[in-house]
Design goal:
single chain; alpha/beta
Length: 193
């Protein structure tokens, strides 16, 4: 973490483009900062102007705690994976969560707290967890999202047990020759063969 310039403390990483940061998600960030005095939230700085606007918006809600919100610069993929691996957990923004990033984080055994949305962009992480047959990090409400995140952030033994379960099961996401075969069969049906 030190080499990457990341802060000490409990690292809650939300590595998604800032356009995904709906104002409703601010309440979850506020809840995490209030409930965990060692929380450090790291967001991805996809655009400096957006980062400034988001910081300003958050400052109006969390006051001085905004100093515990950090922005990671855009980095090459290999370095991005180092950031992911440094996180205690990933937090999925509301309504428009992760997909590729969730696959990468789960491949590293990093827990992702998610509150599934009603539409597809907010349900990819849910789908990945269902494939893993693991529901410990799926919240049913904004309040539960904060509770799950803070539990993972502040209880290292619990976090390690969830990470171990993810590592044990993540092959179900990647070692799937049946998925390629099913896709091929679907394409042949579409083509009328």
């Amino acid at each position: 973490r030190e080499e990457l310039g990341l802060p000490a403390g409990h690292l809650y990483f939300c590595p998604h483009s800032l356009f995904k940061m709906h104002p409703d998600f601010d309440v979850a960030l506020q809840g995490i900062l209030e409930r965990d005095p060692l929380a450090q939230i790291v967001l991805s700085e996809s655009r400096a102007s957006w980062a400034g606007l988001l910081r300003e918006r958050l400052a109006g809600k969390v006051g001085d705690d905004v100093e515990r919100v950090h922005f990671m610069p855009s980095v090459p993929q290999r370095e991005f994976h180092q950031y992911l691996a440094s996180a205690d957990l990933i937090i999925d923004p509301f309504y428009f969560g992760g997909c590729n990033t969730s696959c990468e984080a789960l491949g590293l055994g990093i827990p992702i707290v998610t509150l599934p949305g009603a539409l597809l962009p907010g349900r990819f992480t849910l789908g990945l967890y269902r494939e893993l047959k693991l529901d410990a990090c799926i919240a049913g409400s904004e309040r539960e999202f904060v509770e799950l995140a803070v539990r993972l952030g502040t209880q290292p033994d619990y976090r390690r047990s969830i990470s171990a379960q993810i590592r044990e099961r993540c092959g179900r996401l990647y070692e799937r020759p049946d998925a390629g075969k099913a896709l091929g069969e679907a394409l042949l049906r579409i083509a009328g063969r």
